[in-house]
Queue: 2 jobs
Job 1
Amino acid sequence: MIKPKLKESVKAGIPIFVGYMPAAAAFGVLAKGCGLGMLETFLFSALVFAGASQFMALNLLMAGMSAGGIILATFLVNFRHFLMSAYLSTRLDHQAKKVVPLIAFGVTDEVFSVLSFQGGRLSKTTVFSIQLCAYSAWVTGTLAGFFLGGFLPEILNQSMGVALYALFVAILLPEVKKSRRALFLALSSGALNATLIRFQIFPDGWTIIACIVIVALAGSLISETQGAGEEA
Amino acid sequence: MSKEMIVIFGMAMVTYIPRLLPFLFLTNRQIPKRCDAFLRCIPPVALGALIVPGVFTATPEFPVAAFLGVAFTAVYGLIRGGIIVPVLGSVGIAWPDPGPGVVARARTLKKEYRLVSKETQIMNNMKTLGFSEYECKAYLNLLEEFPLNGYALSKNSGVPRSRIYEVLKNLIDKQMVFEQIEEKNRLYYPVDPQIFIKKIKTDYDQVFKNISEFAGDLYTEKKKDDKLVMIKGRKNIVSFLNLLIKGAEKRIAVSIWEEELNELADEINRAVERGVFLRGIFFGENPSRKDPPHPLVPPLISHRRVKRYMAEKKERFISIIIDRRHAISGILSRGEQSRVTWTQDEGFIEISEDHIAHDLIVNLYSASLDKEAYKEFEAFSDNAHNHYFNYSDEEFSAYRKMLT
C-alpha cells in the first residue's frame, strides 16, 4: 500500500526538485555576493524556506533597510501561504493531522500546488515526500550556489526558470480538463492578478492575496448557484 | 546577534506562523459550507495567479524561450497528461541549445560594456574641455531625461544633493542648461548638444586665434637679431655677461674697469683656458704698481691716466664683444640703476670692435713714448679732443690741469 504511494509522491516531487535547484543556487550566489557568510546563507534557506521573500530580503538588506522593516515586508509577501494552508488543512488524513507543525513548515507555492491536486486525503507519506523533495533541493541548491557560484552557467538558471511555471501549468491542466469552473477561476484570477500588478494597486505581496480572496469568494458564490448542476 | 541573524529568525517566524495557524484552527473542525466552498476555490485561483503574469517574465532576456517551454507543457499535458515529462520537456524546449540565450546575453553584455566605456570616454573628453566630473554626469543624465528638478537629477546622476545646485549653476553659466521656474518648482532642461558644441567651438576658435597671433609674434621677435635689449641692474648685467662668456667659442674683446673685471675674471679665465682669444682695454690702477698684478693684464692693455679719465667721464663704462655675435655696452657704475644694451646687430658690433681697437692703438702708442715725447703726445691729444668736443676755455683749462 505505502510503496506505490511513496513512488508516486516522489515522482510528483521531482519537478519541484528540478525547478528549485537553480533558483536556490541563484539565491546562494546572490547571498554570497551580498557579503553573507556560509552559515547565514544556509540558515536563510533552511529556516525561512520561502523563495521570493528571501531574494527580496537580500535586496532590502543591501538597501540598508531596518530588520523590522524587512520582517514586516516578508510577512506581507508570505501571507498568501495562510490561504494555501487553510485549504490544505481540510485535506489531511487522520495520521497527517498529528504532525501539522511539521507539515506547515513546508507549505510553499509549489508544494501547495502539487499537493492540492493529489487525489483523496493527503497522507503523511505524500506530504513529507513532496516537501522533502522541495526542501532538500532548496537547501542543497543554496549551498551549491554559495560554493560553486561562478561556475554555474547563467543559461542554466534562465531555462530552469521556466520549470516552475511549467510545473504550475502541468498541475493545473488536468483540473481544467475536468472542470470548466477550474478553468474559469484560473483564467480570471490570472487576468485579475496581471491587471492588479500592471496598475500596482496593492503593495507587493498583497496583490496575490487580494486576487485569491476576490476570485475565490466570487467562485464560491457562483458555485452555490451553479455548482449543484455541475457536480451532478 | 548580528542584524542578518535577527532578520533570518524574524523572517522564519513571520513565514511559519501564517503557514501554521490555519492548520491549528481549521484541522479537526467542522467547516461551514460557505467557507468550504471558498477554500475549494483556492487551488485553481492560486495557480492562475501564480502563472500569470509571472510566466511572461520567467526568462527576461529571452521571453520566447519561456513561452515555447510552457506552450509545450500545455500541449503535452492536455494530450498525454503527467507532470514530469511536460516539466522537463519545457526546460528542454526553453534550452534547446544554449545558443540563443547565450548569444542574447553576450550581446546585452557587450552593449552594456560599450555604453559604459563610451560614457567614460566622453566624460574624459568633456573634462579636457574644462568640465568637472559632476558637471559631465549632471549634463549627460539631463540629456537622457528632462525636465527634472534638482533633487531628481541628483538621484539619477549620483551627484550629491549638497552639490547639485552649485553644479547646475555652473552649467547654466556655461549655457549648457537652462532653468524654468514653474510656481515653486525649478525645472532644468539641457541645451541641445549641437548648440553648446557650436558655442564652445566658436569660443575655442577665438582662443586659438589669440594664442597663435600672440605666440607667433613673440617667436618671430626673438629671431630678429637687430633688436636692442636693455638690461638693468648691475647684478643682472654681471650674471648675463657671465652667461655669454660661458658660451664664448673664439673671441672676447673688452673695454672694462677693474671692478667689473674682478667679477667676470673666473669665467673669462676659463674661456681663455679653453682657447678663447682675449683682447682689450683695462681701466684700473697701474698694474705695474700692484702686487701681484691683475692676472688678466696682459693680455689686456692698461688705459693711461685713469684718474683724469674718471674726472672727465665720471662713470665706469663697459663694452664687451663676444664671438662677434653679441655686443654689450653701457654704464656699470650706478649699482642697481646701471644699464647696458645687448645687441646682435652687425653695425653695433663693428663699431664696438673699432672703438676698442682705436683705444688700443692710442694707449699702446703712448706707452711706447719716452717722457718728453709722451708730454708732447698728451698735449697733442688734448688739442684733438678739444677740437672734437669743442670745450669752453674754462672746461679746457680744468681738463688740462688733470694732466699728470
Job 2
Amino acid sequence: MGFSAPKSDLVPSELFSLEALKSRYNLDILIVAGFFIGFGTRYAGGCTSGHAITGLSNLQLPSLVAVIGFFIGGLLMTHLFFPLFFKT
Amino acid sequence: MKALKFLFTGIFFGIVLTKSQAVSWYRIVEMFRFESFHMYRIIGSAVVTGLILLQLSKKMNLKTTEGNPINLPEKAKKYKSALLGGTIFGLGWALAGACPGPIFILFGAGYYLICIIILSSILGTFVYGLVANRLP
C-alpha cells in the first residue's frame, strides 16, 4: 500500500508530514478519520479505553457490543477501504 | 492539588502506551490485518488486570483517596448505538491509526500534525451533540 514501516517512527510520513499534507486528499483523510473518531466515541458511549478495557473489565455487555462494532469498522477500513483510498 | 493524581495517572498512561507501541499507527493497522498478536496481548492483559483489580477492590472494599467505594458506572444499555457508533469509531480508529488517548500522546511525542485529527474529532463530538436525538 506504499506505507513503509520504519521501526523508529510511530506514524507514516506518507500521511503525517507537511509534504503529504500539501495534497488536499491526504488532509481530507485525516479530517474524516478524526471526525469518525469523535462522532463514533460519543455515539458508542466510549472509546478503546472506555469500552474495550474498562467496560470489558467491568463485564459490561454494551461494551462487548461496542468492541464488536470497533472491529467491524476497523476491518472494513483496513480490508475494504484502504485499497480504495491508497492506490499505489 | 487534588488534580495532581489525575496528572500523574495521565503521565503514566501516556508512558505505558508509548513504550508498548500502542500509539503506533502501524500497530493498529497490523492488528486489523491480523499480522501480529501485539495489540491483542496489550488489550487482553489490560482487561485481565482490570478484571482482577476491580473484583479485588469489590471484595476488599477498597476506597478511593476521597474515601468513596471504587464504583464504575454501568454502561447505558443502548446496544444499537453501541454497535453503530462503535462501527463509525472503528472506521476512524483504523484510518487514523490512533484512538482518543493516543492522539494526545502522539501530539506530546512531537507529532504535531496530529492536531488536525484532534480538532476534527472535537468537531465530530460537537456534530454528534447536534444530531444525537435524530439518531437510532
